[in-house]
Design a protein that fits this description.
By secondary structure, the protein is mainly α. It is flat, with a radius of gyration of 17 Å. The protein has four helices and no strands.
Length: about 140
């Protein structure tokens, strides 16, 4: 029972980070849409999703394991998941650039924005948790 609760907590936090990351991507795309135009907004969204969607798949596959008894499964899933995440992200990026009418600079801005929003979301949530524990 305690392991199931830990699984639920870990999964919920991981999904929350990805949701905040994808929200950051949408904000970046909206800013690009307002400042530059439709193609730039669409391109930034596609670039951000090229990083965000593989991250969602990573969380879905890896964070099923929690607890000391599942440490080996977690580590194996983590390393395999990270390799797959990077490969899927690269493939999505290449498909977007090759087949969609996009602005390459905006795709890169969206992609980098997806990476940065992931780190901002992670730091914000972990800082928030640390503040709660300190009180």
């Amino acid at each position: 029972m305690a392991t199931q609760t830990l699984n639920t907590i870990v999964q919920r936090e991981a999904y929350r980070i990805v949701l905040l990351q994808l929200s950051g991507v949408v904000v970046i795309a909206l800013i690009a849409l307002i400042l530059v135009g439709k193609m730039s907004g669409f391109s930034a969204l596609m670039g951000g999703l090229a990083y965000g969607l593989p991250n969602l798949i990573f969380v879905w596959r890896v964070f099923r394991y929690a607890g000391a008894s599942q440490m080996v499964q977690f580590m194996a899933a983590f390393f395999i998941g990270e390799m797959l995440k990077l490969a899927i992200s690269a493939i999505l990026f290449l498909l977007i650039v090759k087949y969609l009418p996009i602005s390459l600079l905006s795709v890169l801005v969206g992609y980098v924005g997806g990476i940065v929003s992931f780190w901002i979301a992670s730091m914000w949530l972990f800082t928030k948790k640390a503040e709660i524990r300190a009180d």
